[in-house]
TrEMBL record, chain A:
Domain called Beta-Casp: residue spans: 245-363
Entry keywords, A to Z: Cytoplasm, Hydrolase, Metal-binding, Nucleus, Zinc
Gene giving rise to this polypeptide: CPSF3L
Taxonomy of the source species: Eukaryota, Metazoa, Chordata, Craniata, Vertebrata
Record's protein name: Integrator complex subunit 11
Residues annotated as domain Metallo-beta-lactamase: 16-233
UniProtKB/TrEMBL annotation, chain B:
INTS4 8 helical bundle domain ranges (all copies): 611-814
Gene3D superfamilies attached to this UniProt entry: Leucine-rich Repeat Variant (1.25.10.10)
InterPro entries: ARM-like, ARM-type_fold, INTS4_8HBD, INTS4_C
Keyword Transferase belongs to the record: no
Domain Integrator complex subunit 4/Protein SIEL C-terminal Ig-like: 823-960
Protein localization: Nucleus
Protein's recorded name: Integrator complex subunit 4
Species the sequence originates in: Galeopterus variegatus (Malayan flying lemur)
Gene that specifies this protein: INTS4
Alphabetical keyword list: Nucleus
Entries under Pfam families matching the protein: HEAT_2 (PF13646), INTS4_8HBD (PF24493), INTS4_C (PF25458), PDS5 (PF20168)
């Protein structure tokens, strides 16, 4: 029985370290290769020894697919390919290919230079790893080998994020990666055609949330910023360098443009500049507005947003500053925060979630006095705002995507178990398809019934057409022919042609059967009676009485003879070819019941 | 005919070469139309299919007259029979279709042939084309039932064809020609009327998506032609909503909409439950669902149609704005709900904490329906869509639904306000307009007003002006709201001083709509103090004027308000009432009996006396012929003066008054010119004096052009009179020239030309001639035979006498007539700083002007730049530069490129707007151009221009280029 097997090595009932193994029609594909943010030990990377204990991964995996450049989807890639050892192809989209190494390098720097970890991948390894990458375009069908093909769909979420369809023959799996069904200021909405895969593997971060319209959020954000700068305050927005940062930049930039504001906006430098460069390049991956207007002006060429310098923080007058990192736990954003916290005119806007223990979390939960290192106490007088700008699909969005793709079954990853439970139930109820939610290391096996294409010879088809009515589009029809399997392809041909091709002579196969009948009359008369009997019953068939005394029904021959021992019984000899098996056996059973009593 | 055809058909099979000769003999029949003969010869010459195709293509470029169509068709058919190449047959078939569309040709005679060749055709493409031809024939003969039946029959026969193209065309044919009544009387030729609807419906499940689409389209076509669709189609159409192909879904949405409009009240069951709902509600839910379809084409279609489903129940309607929020399975309030709550609790602090939007109640997991079959959140999705086309469609739909349901209008307000922040200007603009349209039904809350007003800072002028218009007709609930609006508008004024007029106008309406809300604000706004006199504000400050406009307009409805004014306010009132009378209403002020007597009586009958006056003065003039010339002149002068003053006083009569005055002025000029002494003296002596007469002629010409093209609402009746006046002016010109020039030769040409003009006049206005009894032209036409044969000198003499005898024609006044006018707002012409640029390069000058009562400004309005050296440049603005903010009003915002060689000093150039005209454009085009497929090119050659705005001076300075 053919089947699809799916084993999450990470992201099974969990967020982080996405890594899913899929076996489909004998092909093994690894989807994403991420790290976990919550761990600093071995658990931060997926357990690749699960795939194979000894022996190279290359022999076992046909390809690796990376959905987008977030570290929880690609962070383990150099470790996997260079340290564990994998030489096969790695597929990702062009923007991912461009931005991914920047983030990996940054990740490496923090781990090695700041935390002083040994036995971590090196810069060279990142470079070597990226050499194995094959970049794909949207909607481009890439043949990994003769049978396995993959195709990328637009996923929103971040620049270059893609959903992938993995297809072998007629079996297919769609992996969504992270996606967003509502368009935002710089990205469009995820879209997939009605590809009807056997399995849809979807993220489920917001499995139990239906979000408010993005317009309210945007308006709120802009209003807050605008009001603060108008009364001369400074606005600090701690962000992570990529993804939402660009979204907020565009939001502010267009607002500044529209409202003709002159207040400076700064962006703390670092990897963002490099990344912004790529944002400028990959215009085709952005939304309608940016795509349409980039000829006049590229939206990522910020007019109002300038690079930040440490000295600017002390400048008088209003300003807006984007600074990294996003949770205010270290670095530039924290420095600026300390400088500005004392003034109630200022404001800090947290655009995302903050982990417990960070300054960001503390101030969001309402703490007004912070203890800094060196026993300093920092009093926070500035306003603290929280806005959620997240780019994941909500429950409705997930359902919408499932509806668009029409899969045979759904598998949930990248979410919390409790929330998945709810969504699973909903999906099963609304779409009447199976839904799975395996934990890490747990394997889901899906039986499939792949359709096998069979070639049919035109002659045979025409012959059949000539016999019956016109074929109806959706009704099955019975057809006689010979199935030839040769070099793993199947053909249906007429038996004559099959014989010819195989060089065989045709054999006639005849069945004969004797039926004893009580009849005292002569053979001739018995034959006559059989003829008239059959004629009355088989009205559709051609029943003939031949001059030599035998009766034929189509090609079936019936002869009557006297029993050698008992003259009162006649023996009917019924003979038919195997093609007429159906009719022949019917006739015998009919004759066995005896002839009706002749009206005497 | 049929026998002949049959013979042809058989001949085709034998493919005899000698047919050529037989064709050749046929030439005799075709002697009349040279066109068909030429085609025939061409086709005979053709050696290869490619050749023949070339000839046919060439032939198709030229139009064919209705009389020769039949001949051409015969020839084409003949060639069709012998042609083996399908591409040539295809072209012939398409030509047949085109020809049968020719005006004045009845295609029923080629019907038989077309059906006949259809039966023998093998190529699918040609078949499809032939069916198309039949469709053209069928639509040409809508009354002929028999033919229609026959065509439907043919279509039904070919419906089983294997090619989708053929099936497509068949369905199209059925849709266009299928008989509408099911049981037509037993027919003429015994063809039973078919149930077209059922036949078409069967193809909803065709295997080819294109055919499915065509079937739905055909069904829609049937509906459009008046066939009542069965309700059973609804279920079929619903199934098609989940089709794999977008064009099918898109068409299916339309079909569902149509059915829902036909049977809004019938009841349909909800699958998987026992409940039943109204069909319109069900359809509404289904179309709402399509708003989140995968294809944006379908989404646009669905969003658009939602707007017109007005009968839908209100709770369904309100669902479209509701997207039950939840977070971690707990119910969450939307930001809108929170805002509303904040507002109603009176708290307005912005101290929002993390988790302020924390979800409250638990949600029953069983009850949450993630994919509602209903309308849940359709508009929320539509308004957030990626494609701005969908968003615009959604906003439009919202507008239409809100107009019909006040409660829905109230609800959708939050969403519309949100759209003011859309990233695409068009969407913002559209939503502002929408808001304006529904503003009668709504009152803005303060927080909503806040968001609305924030947009006032938008850098796009269109957006700001749209917003001003919106504020003009908005209801504000509190006095804080008014104050807020005023503050924001003043902020806008300082930021964009060019918005001055628009802001004043906006405040005028804001004041007159909310007198009671303005009242408590007055002391604050005027910064008066109960004990101290405050400094008198600067009267020229636009912001102060804005405040006063608001207050004075409010005071009109609120008699207690003037008591709060201080002395200088009254003075300012008097000043503003005079200088900005359109913004400041007449007030009844205590202690001053300034206008009190005229305020009320003015309102009701005040149009009648002036109208009457106008009529009377015109009547007086038309009785003119009985007076002596001297008296006539005086009367005319008097009346013109009266009319001009009337136009100034009564803006609604300005058009009529100006128009009549212009006409009378022409007459006056004519009379004056004829009074000249030069007529009595021998010609050669009065060369100089003739200046006056010829100047008069020229001026009359100018005036007539102005009358014809500068007024909107001029009807044919007036055009005749105007043209008549122009003809008189031309006659005058001719006489003057005849008097002043020596020699006869140039006169010959002029006379000829003049007579042509007369002839032309007669042809153009033949229908109106009876009204011109006793007029100049009437007499002239009587004398026409004589004129044609006379010598120039004689002609001039005749003209002179007729001109003198002719009477003043009565100019009937049109109902509504408005003079086109234009004001250039920008450049203002006040700047002392010259615009510097390097000579030889260009500088772009922004021009912003408002146009009133200009018809078709895209083609008529031009910008003229006059350089100091006398060089004039005419610029044609792009059609996209014109906006249409209201009926009869246009706005030109364009850039004019200036360039010149280097100057030593800065100097002024003049910029003005011109109205280009072409008097020939009024004459209907000769008919033969319209036949054939080549659409007549609209040639807008400019005959002349009329300046219709005050020129504005712009200071420029082209510097020499630095080396």
């Amino acid at each position: 029985m053919p089947e699809i097997r799916v084993t999450p090595l990470g992201a099974g009932q969990d967020v982080g370290r996405s890594c899913i193994l899929v076996s489909i029609a004998g092909k093994n594909v690894m989807l994403d290769c991420g790290m976990h943010m919550g761990f600093n030990d071995d658990r931060r990377f997926p357990d690749f020894s699960y795939i194979t204990q000894n022996g190279r991964l290359t022999d076992f995996l046909d390809c690796v697919i990376i959905s987008h450049f977030h570290l929880d989807h690609c962070g383990a890639l150099p470790y996997f390919s260079e340290m564990v050892g994998y030489d096969g192809p790695i597929y990702m989209t062009h923007p991912t290919q461009a931005i991914c190494p920047i983030l990996l390098e940054d990740y490496r720097k923090i781990a090695v230079d700041k935390k002083g970890e040994a036995n971590f991948f090196t810069s060279q390894m990142i470079k070597d790893c990226m050499k194995k990458v094959v970049a794909v375009h949207l909607h481009q069908t890439v043949q990994v080998d003769d049978e396995l093909e993959i195709k990328a769909y637009y996923a929103g979420h971040v620049l270059g994020a893609a959903m992938f369809q993995i297809k072998v023959g007629s079996e297919s799996v769609v992996y969504t990666g992270d996606y967003n069904m509502t368009p935002d200021r710089h990205l469009g909405a995820a879209w997939i055609d009605k590809c009807r895969p056997n399995l849809l593997i979807t993220e489920s971060t917001y499995a139990t949330t239906i979000r408010d319209s993005k317009r309210c959020r945007e308006r709120d954000f802009l209003k807050k910023v605008h009001e603060t700068v108008e009364r001369g305050g400074k606005v600090l927005i701690p962000v992570f360098a990529l993804g939402r940062a660009q979204e907020l930049c565009i939001l502010l930039e267009t607002f500044w443009e529209r409202m003709n504001l002159k207040v400076p906006i700064y962006f703390s430098t670092g990897l963002t500049e490099k990344a912004n460069h790529y944002y400028k390049l990959f215009i085709t991956w952005t939304n309608q507005k940016i795509r349409k207007t980039f000829v006049q002006r590229n939206m990522f060429e910020f007019k109002h947003i300038k690079a930040f310098d440490r000295a600017f923080a002390d400048n008088p007058g209003p300003m807006v500053v984007f600074a990294t990192p996003g949770m205010l736990h270290a670095g530039q954003s924290l420095q600026i925060f300390r400088k500005w916290a004392g003034n109630e005119k200022n404001m800090v806007i947290m655009p995302g979630y903050c982990v417990q223990g960070t300054v960001g979390h503390k101030i969001l939960s309402g703490q007004r006095k912070l203890e800094m290192e060196g026993r300093q106490v920092l009093e926070v007088k500035m306003q603290v705002e929280y806005m959620s700008f997240s780019a994941h699909a909500d429950a409705k969005g997930i359902m919408q995507l499932v509806g668009q793709a029409e899969p045979e079954s759904v598998l949930l990853v990248h979410g919390e178990a409790k929330k998945m439970e709810f969504l699973k139930q909903k999906i099963e109820q609304e779409f009447r398809v199976n839904c799975y939610m395996p934990a890490n290391g747990e394997t889901v096996t899906l039986p499939t019934s792949p359709s096998i294409p069979v070639g049919i010879s035109l002659g045979l088809l025409k012959q059949e057409m000539a016999q019956g009515l016109l074929p109806e589009a959706k009704k099955p029809r019975l057809l006689h022919g010979t199935l030839i399997m040769k070099d793993s392809n199947l053909r249906l041909v007429s038996s004559e042609q099959a014989l010819k091709e195989l060089g065989l002579a045709e054999h006639q196969l005849r069945f004969t059967c004797r039926v004893h009948l009580h009849d005292t009359r002569k053979e001739q008369e018995t034959a006559m009676r059989v003829h008239s009997h059959l004629k009355s019953i088989l009205k559709d068939h051609c029943v003939q009485h031949l001059p030599d005394g035998s009766v034929t029904v189509e090609s079936i021959l019936i002869q009557a003879a006297a029993h050698s021992e008992d003259p009162g019984t006649k023996v009917l000899l019924v003979s038919w070819t195997y093609q007429d098996e159906e009719l022949g056996s019917y006739l015998t059973s009919l004759l066995k019941k005896g002839l009706p009593q002749a009206p005497s | 005919m049929a026998a002949h055809l049959k013979k042809r058909v058989y001949e085709e099979f034998t493919k005899v070469v000698q047919q050529q000769e037989e064709i050749a003999t046929k030439k005799l029949r075709l002697t009349k139309p040279s066109k068909s003969a030429a085609l025939h010869i061409d086709l005979c010459k053709a050696t290869s299919p490619a050749d023949a195709l070339q000839y046919l293509l060439q032939f198709a470029r030229k139009p064919v007259e209705a009389e020769s169509v039949e001949g051409v068709v015969r020839i084409l058919l003949e060639h069709y029979y012998k042609e083996n190449d399908p591409s040539v047959r295809l072209k012939i078939a398409s030509l047949l279709g085109l020809l049968s569309k020719t005006e004045g040709f009845s295609p029923d005679c080629i019907m038989d042939d077309a059906v006949n060749i259809l039966q023998n055709e093998k190529s699918h493409q040609v078949l499809a084309q032939l069916l198309d031809t039949l469709l053209a024939i069928g639509t040409k003969l809508p009354e002929n039932q028999a033919i229609q039946m026959r065509l439907v029959d043919v279509a039904c026969k070919h419906l089983t064809d294997t090619s989708h193209g053929v099936r497509n065309k068949c369905l199209q044919l059925l849709g266009n020609l299928g008989s509408l009544e099911k049981s037509v009387t037993k027919d003429t030729e015994g063809l039973a009327a078919r149930d077209v609807q059922k036949i078409v419906g069967d193809y909803f499940s065709d295997q080819d998506p294109r055919v499915r689409t065509a079937a739905i389209k055909a069904m829609l076509q049937l509906h459009e032609r008046g066939l009542k669709l069965h309700q059973t189609i609804y279920n079929q159409a619903c199934k098609l909503l989940s089709d794999d192909y977008e064009q099918v879904r898109s068409a299916a949405v339309q079909l569902i909409w149509v059915v829902s409009q036909l049977y809004p009240e019938s009841i349909v069951p909800i699958p998987s439950s026992n409940e039943e709902i109204r069909l319109i509600d069900d359809a509404f839910g289904k179309i709402c669902h399509m708003v989140s379809d995968g294809s944006w084409v379908v989404r646009v279609q669905a969003a658009k149609l939602l707007g017109s489903m007005e009968q839908v129940s209100s709770h369904f309607l309100e669902q479209t704005l509701d997207k039950k929020l939840m977070s971690d399975l707990r119910r969450k309030r939307t930001a809108h709900e929170r805002a509303k709550e904040l507002y109603s609790s009176g708290e307005f602090s912005s101290g929002r904490k993390w988790g302020d939007d924390a979800p409250k109640e638990e949600v029953d997991t069983g009850a949450v329906n993630l994919i509602e079959s209903g309308a849940c959140g359709a508009f929320v999705h539509g308004l957030e869509d990626e494609m701005y086309e969908v968003r615009i469609a959604a906003v439009e739909a919202l507008c239409m639904l809100a107009q019909s349901s006040p409660s829905f209008a109230e609800k959708c307000l939050d969403f519309l306000v949100d759209m003011f922040n859309d990233e695409i200007e068009e969407v913002r603009l559209q939503s502002i307009h929408t808001m304006r349209k529904i503003s009668n039904n709504i009152t803005l809350r303060e927080d909503q007003l806040d968001t609305v007003l924030a947009v006032l800072e938008d850098s796009s002028r269109d957006i700001r002006e749209a917003l001003h218009e919106l504020l003009c007709c908005t209801n504000v609930s509190t006095k804080e709201g008014i104050h807020l609006a005023l503050v924001e508008l003043l902020k806008n004024l300082t930021k964009y001083p060019t918005d001055r007029d628009s802001i004043w106008k906006c405040l005028k309406f804001l004041g007159s709509r909310h007198p009671t809300l303005v009242l408590p604000l007055v002391p604050e706004l005027l910064s008066t103090h109960p004990f101290f006199d405050t400094a008198e504000p600067d009267m020229d400050d636009p912001a102060y004027i804005a405040v006063l406009v608001l207050i004075f307009n409010a005071a009109k409805m609120c008699p207690t308000m003037p008591a709060l004014f201080s002395d200088h306010t009254f003075r300012h009132y008097a000043y503003l009432r005079d200088s900005l009378s359109h913004l400041v209403p007449a007030l009844r002020l205590p202690g001053r009996k300034l206008v009190s007597s005229t305020v009320y009586p003015n309102i009701v009958p005040h149009e009648d006396p002036s109208q009457q006056f106008l009529q009377q003065s015109l009547e007086r003039v038309y009785s003119l012929q009985h007076l002596d010339p001297q008296g006539a002149q005086e009367l005319l002068e008097l009346t013109i003066r009266d009319l001009q003053r009337l136009g100034e006083l009564q803006s609604e009569l300005a058009g009529v008054a100006d128009f009549s005055a212009a006409y009378l002025r022409c007459q006056l000029l004519l009379i004056k010119a004829l009074q000249e002494k030069l007529w009595n003296v021998a010609a050669p002596l009065y060369l100089k004096q003739s200046d006056l007469a010829s100047a008069a002629a020229k001026q009359i010409m100018e005036e007539t052009y102005k009358m014809e093209f500068m007024y909107s609402g001029v009807e044919n009746k007036q055009v005749v009179i105007i043209h008549h006046m122009r003809l008189q002016a031309k006659a005058l010109q001719l006489i003057v020239t005849a008097r002043t020039t020596r020699g006869v030769d140039p006169l010959f040409g002029m006379c000829e030309k003049f007579l042509q003009e007369v002839d032309f006049f007669q042809r153009c206005f033949i229908a109106d001639l009876p009204h011109l009894q006793d007029s100049f032209v009437d007499k002239l036409l009587d004398l026409m035979p004589r004129l044609m044969t006379s010598k120039p000198a004689e002609v001039v003499k005749i003209l002179q006498t007729t001109l003198r005898q002719s009477t003043l024609l009565h100019l009937p006044l049109p109902e509504q007539i408005d003079k086109a006018s234009a004001t250039i707002i920008e450049p203002a012409g006040e700047s002392d700083n010259p615009l510097r640029f390097t000579s030889g390069l260009v500088v772009a000058l922004d021009v912003d002007a408002t146009l009133e009562h200009v018809q078709d400004p895209q083609s008529t309005v031009k910008v003229q730049v006059l350089y100091p050296d006398g060089q004039a440049q005419m610029i044609h603005p792009k059609p996209a530069d014109f906006r249409n903010p209201g009926p009869g009003r246009h706005r030109l915002i364009t850039q004019v490129y200036l360039s010149h060689t280097a100057w030593t000093e800065p100097c002024q150039v003049e910029v003005r707007l011109l109205l280009a005209y072409n008097s020939n454009a009024r004459i209907p085009k000769s008919s033969w151009i319209e036949g054939g497929e080549v659409s007549p090119q609209v040639e807008t050659s400019i005959e002349g221009t009329i300046p219709f705005s005050k020129p504005v001076k712009v200071y420029i300075m082209p510097k020499p280029a630095r080396r």
